[in-house]
Amino acid sequence: MTHTTQSPERARGRPVDTGQQDLKVQILDTAEALFAKNGYAATSIRRIADQAGVNPALVHYYFGNKKALLQAVMDRSLEPLGRAIAAMKDGTDASPDKIARLLLSMIVEHPNIPHLLTREVLLPGGEMQEYFAQNMAPHLGGALPALLSREKSAGRVRQDSDPAVSAVLIMAMCVFPFIARALAEPVLGIDFDEQGFELLNTQITELLKQGLMS
Predict the structure, then answer these.
(1) 70 belongs to a structural domain
(2) Is residue 69 part of a domain?
(3) What is the mean pLDDT of the chain?
């Protein structure tokens, strides 16, 4: 009977299924943090691998190349948000405060995403501008004006509001505090712990109820 032994190199490059998901999450978490902090161009696969504690070959095995890894980082956080917004289209309640809660929930789970979006989508020359505009924006912020227009027609949003402008303002209130976190914590004394997230959500909700909702 022939017995085949897997080489150590192959074992490192093609791990058994048991730990694959944990390793992929570890790589994605590390890439998300480094891309957000240093930018796509300044972050190498080797640096991501070193910080994640894996072989660079493993990153290539799971994700192909650096741009595909960046795309996977964005997809992981934004695709569930897109599905949740899509579900609102089939529901009866897409109130501004519920939209804000969805946005905040995503950011709380992935607090590096606002910086990543700023670097690689919003600023000139961002690596993911085209991909985001074509594949994500229509299902995220681009879907909000129609939902808010429906809320306006139902009398749940002020009649003097503009749905597109309202969508931008909701996104700004939810996302900007996390972009400004490096200054907001030491200068303004805002805590971004669990209690701070709830306080932020409460105050955003109150602003929306008083300024936008009927």
Answers:
(1) no
(2) no
(3) 90
